[in-house]
Design a protein that fits this description.
- This protein has five helices and seven strands.
- By secondary structure, the chain is α+β, with helices and mostly antiparallel strands.
- Among the domains are: 42 residues; 95 residues, no CATH class.
- The strands form three sheets. The chain has a three-stranded antiparallel β-sheet with strand order 3-2-5, covered by helices on one side.
- A hairpin with a 3-residue loop joins strand 2 and strand 3.
Length: 202
């Protein structure tokens, strides 16, 4: 009896195959859950970092040399401050940039006008212009971004008609005088008339 009891006790102390399988499956499930939780944490961190990067990139802006910026605020309107070159901060959605090019630009205007002796003259005016930096907010409010197309044509045409056109005939005669003197020097004056080129010579 003692030998049989001892053998039974020995068999009772040995773990069964089903218990070992259950333990291993439990350990594997716990390991997979830990890996899933780590992946979820990494995904949350990557998402937060991406959102922070997008917010930072949309809040910073760079102004190059030769440019100036006026800020439009949805609450306060056009701000009175003009922003220069460099890296600056912006409130997303609430503020919007209005960028100006302050380089000197050429503009050409042409007009056909009549002189005092009723001759038609084709005049061309070339204007170099650039905006005044301190008044860019007022320019945005009153004229907009295409201020040069609204202001310069009227000024150019007025200058051509009121200033240049009356003097065009005189300028034309001054332009033709050297050619007339050269013809006189080569051909000579008509018979009995003095040579004007000699009288004009120093």
């Amino acid at each position: 009896m003692s030998s049989s009891q001892s053998s039974l006790g020995y068999y009772n102390t040995l773990p069964s195959t089903s218990t070992t399988t259950a333990l291993s499956s439990t350990v594997s499930i716990m390991g997979s859950q830990g890996a899933i939780s780590q992946l979820n944490n990494i995904a949350r961190a990557a998402l937060g970092l991406g959102i922070a990067t997008m917010a930072l990139s949309s809040s910073l802006y760079i102004i190059d040399g030769g440019q100036r910026t006026v800020i439009f605020d949805r609450i306060r309107g056009i701000l009175d401050e003009t922003v220069g070159k460099g890296i600056h901060f912006l409130i997303p959605w609430l503020q919007k940039l209005v960028i100006f090019d302050i380089h000197t630009k050429p503009h050409t205007f042409s007009s056909v006008s009549s002189t005092r002796d009723l001759q038609m003259v084709n005049l061309t005016l070339r204007v170099l212009s650039r905006p005044e930096v301190t008044r860019l907010p007022q320019i945005v409010q009153t004229l907009g971004l295409k201020y040069d197309e609204k202001v310069l044509p009227s000024i150019g045409n007025e200058v051509l008609k009121t200033v240049m056109a009356p003097k065009a005939g005189h300028l034309r005669h001054l332009h033709e005088a050297p050619h007339f003197l050269l013809r006189l020097q080569h051909q000579g004056p008509p018979d009995g008339q003095p040579n004007p080129s000699r009288s004009l010579a120093p």
